[in-house]
Each structure stands twice: as C-alpha cells, then as structure tokens.
Amino acid sequence: MQQTIIERLDRIAEDVVSLVLRGAAGPLAPWEPGAHIDLALPNWLTRQYSLCGDPADRDSYRIAARYEPLSRGGSEYIHRFLRRGRALDVSLPRNHFPLVPAPEYLFLAGGIGITPILPMLRAAAGSGTPASLVYAGGTLATMPFADELRSSHGERVRIVPTRQQGRPDLAGLAAALDPAAAVYCCGPASMLAAAEAVFPADRLHTERFHPAVRSFAPNTPFEAVCARSGRTVRVPADESLLEALIHAGHPVASGCREGVCGSCELTVVTGDPEHRDDIGAPAGRMYACVSRALSSRLVLDL
Ligand code: FES
C-alpha cells in the first residue's frame, strides 16, 4: 500500500468528483495508461479506480468517481465523507488494459469509462499515432472531462450527448477504420456489447466495471494445495476459492470480488483452473474470487 493525502476533491460533472491524491512519503509508484489502483476506504471497503492523470507526474495520482445510487457503499462514501486533507491508502497500480502498439487507435468511452481512456488518448496522440475518441454520455452535464478533451485534442474527439444525438454509429466507425487499428472501449455494458458486435475480437480491447452476464457449469468442490505452507484447503461448491482460503487463515487480497479488478490474483503451480473472470488471466495465474478448478486439485504458490 502507498499512503496518500487528498490534495484536491472537485465536482467535475453531475454526480462525478475528481480526486488528486498526493504521495505522503515522496514519489508514488509509476504507472502506464490503462492502469488502476485500489482505494482502501476508511469504511473498510476497497474500490478500484482508473488513473486518469499524467503518468509523468510521480507526485500525485488523479482519479474520478461517479456516485452510483445502487452501489455497495464505495462511491457513496467518497461523495459524502471524503474531504481535502484526508489520508488515504492506495495500492500499487495494476494494468489489465494496456495500450498495445498499433498503426491507429479508436477509443470509445461511455460516461465514467472515459477515465482510463484519457491517458491513453494523450499517449497515442503524443506518439504521433493517428488516434480518435468517441465519447458518449447521457447529457453534457454528466460527462466529466469533456472540456479538457476538447481543448487538448480538438477534432480528434467527438462528444456525443446521447439524449440529444442518439448513440454513436459504431458500425459506421468500424467500416471507416484501418483494418489494423486497435479499438479500446470502456463504458456501460450496452456500449461494450455494441462494440463487441461490430469490431473483431482480436482488435477490440475492453474494460468492464461489472462482470459480463455468462453462465457456467454448476460449481463442484475441489482442493487447493498451498505449496509454501503445505496446507490443503477444501473448497466446497457453495464457497469461492477466495473465501475458502481466507476462512482457512490464508489472507488473500481482494477488491471487487467480481472478477474485474485483479486484486486477488494467484499463481497456479499445477492443476487446471476454470477461469471465470472478465480480465483474461495470464498463463499460470487465476483470480480467486470467481475462478474455480476443472481438476480435482490446484496447487497454488501460497
Ligand atoms: S477481487 Fe477483483 S478480481 Fe478478484
């Protein structure tokens, strides 16, 4: 964890605040566009936010949080109780949404999904690569950073208030795009589904706030062998691997508990994990909050 102090807390759009978190003990850990951090909130909740400032600024991180009336308490706490000057612990940055080299970029953002896209667009434009952004939201008043984008990027950016203009024509954008271009999309599930319907999967990079709706085979019990401690933990069908490990006294970090943030990543030594996350686990890794096992046992580097 890194200790920070809230240096600024500003309302930047309807129901959206931006926070600038200054390192309390000097420079903060480096990060790249697409990265996020966990905020350890004083009400014991841990929530993930994309970094939307400048990666060259090692003194502070910038994030933005939308108030979600149906949230589980994270955004409400940020909006109601956090104030300038408050200390806040944050994790090291993690990046499951990295910018890959491409001859052209199309960025698609919906609402607060603009946050990881901001530094990506800046990096792509700064490198001289052709890049454009289509940024959709209900109304202009609900869309954070719209002015900053217009003034910094001019015609590269198309702002689409959907209540006036309707949803952007993704099929039209796909037809006009360089076949080798990379497409990055972050926004509500409806926008991700629309992007998945028109852009080829090998060119489309997405980041989700919530897991996609999918179905899996019924849970079956399995054993998790903790290679370092030598202990074997039984994971019943009605418990996640994360819960079983914690109940057995093996602390494992966690955040979203929905398979979208990556906090609970474990290294698999042997065995066959059944990946149920929305991140795309790298080889030899799994996310313990949602993923299970296809084999009767997994050996974990724990
Ligand atoms: S806690 Fe977020 S992916 Fe497991």
List keywords for this structure.
302 residues, alpha/beta, Elongation Factor Tu (Ef-tu), domain 3, Rossmann fold, Ubiquitin-like (UB roll), 3 domains, six-stranded antiparallel beta sheet, five-stranded parallel beta sheet, 7 helices, 19% helix, globular, binds FE2/S2 (inorganic) cluster
Can you give a write-up of this model?
The strands form 4 sheets. Strands 4-3-6-1-2-5 form a 6-stranded antiparallel beta sheet, covered by helices on one side. It has a 5-stranded parallel beta sheet with strand order 9-8-7-10-11, with helices on both faces. It folds into 3 domains: 2-90, Translation factors (Elongation Factor Tu (Ef-tu), domain 3), CATH 2.40.30.10; 105-207, Rossmann fold; 222-300, Roll (Ubiquitin-like (UB roll)). It is built from 7 helices and 18 strands. It is an alpha/beta fold and 302 residues long. The model has no long low-confidence stretch (mean pLDDT 94). Strand 7, helix 2 and strand 8 (131-137) form a beta-alpha-beta unit. The chain is 19% helix and 31% strand. The structure holds FE2/S2 (inorganic) cluster. The site of FE2/S2 (inorganic) cluster has 13 residues, from loops.
State the secondary-structure class. Answer: alpha/beta
Strand content of the residues, in percent?
Answer: 25-35%
Strands, count: 18
CATH topology of the largest domain: Rossmann fold
Number of helices: 7
Question: Which sequence of strands runs across the widest sheet?
Answer: 4-3-6-1-2-5
Helix content, binned percent: 10-25%
Report the end-to-end length measured between terminal Cα atoms: 20 Å
Which parts are unreliable, with pLDDT below 50 for 5 consecutive residues or more?
A: none
Number of domains: 3
Mean pLDDT: 94
The H-and-E topology, N to C, reads as: EEEEEHEEHEHEHHEHEEEHEEEEE
State the name of the first-level CATH class of the largest domain: Alpha Beta
What is the architecture of the largest domain at the second tier of CATH?
A: 3-Layer(aba) Sandwich
Write down the overall geometry: globular
The set of bound ligands, ions and cofactors reads: FE2/S2 (inorganic) cluster
Q: Report on the biggest sheet.
A: 6 strands, antiparallel
The Cα radius of gyration reads 20 Å
CATH fourth-tier homologous superfamily of the largest domain: Nucleotide-binding domain of ferredoxin-NADP reductase (FNR) module
